[in-house]
Amino acid sequence: VQLQASGGGLVQPGGSLRLSCAASHSISSFSVMGWYRQAPGNQRELVAEMASGGSTNYADSVKGRFTISRDNAKNTVYLQMNVLKPEDTAVYYCNAVRNVFGSRYVYWGQGTLVTVSS
Fold first, then answer.
1. Which of 13, 16, 48, 108 has an alpha carbon 20 to 30 Å from 85's alpha carbon atom?
2. d(CA 34, CA 44)
């Protein structure tokens, strides 16, 4: 399984970006897909995740500003980020979890850097 993240870049505070995560396999095969981020000196943290049934979970710090969505036909998960703040600056990683016969498999994409700065 390969996850290809894209869409990062430099944006001013208050701006928007949309991250994409393209999977090499059908995303319907994953029990959960999500986005994590890691800022310099910090641990990797959950930003947003979506279960196969469509339920979502967001970090408190991004609620109301970020939206996770998916396009099953394109095997792609998105993270729409609005009203970006300097503290959103981090490397963002795509994540997918598959449960098979009681075993849990976790996949990570390469990171995409988001820099929020004026």
1. 108
2. 13
The rounded mean pLDDT for the chain is 95
Rg over CA atoms, the chain = 14
- Cβ atoms 2, 108 nearer than 8 A: no
> Hey, what amino acid is at 62?
V
Give the span between the Cα atoms of 98 and 12, in whole angstroms.
Answer: 36
The three state secondary structure string of the chain is CCEEEECCEEECCCCCEEEEEEECCCHHHCCEEEEEEECCCCCCEEEEEEECCCCEEECHHHCCCEEEEEEHHHCEEEEEECCCCHHHCEEEEEEEEEEECCEEEEEECCCEEEEECC
Answer for the pair 44, 37: CB distance below 8 angstroms, yes or no: yes
Give the model confidence (pLDDT) of 35-88 as tens digits.
999 999 999 999 999 999 999 999 999 999 999 999 999 999 999 999 999 999
Of 43, 44, 32, the residue nearest 68 (C-alpha): 32
Q: Look at residue 28 in the predicted model and tell me its pLDDT.
A: 86
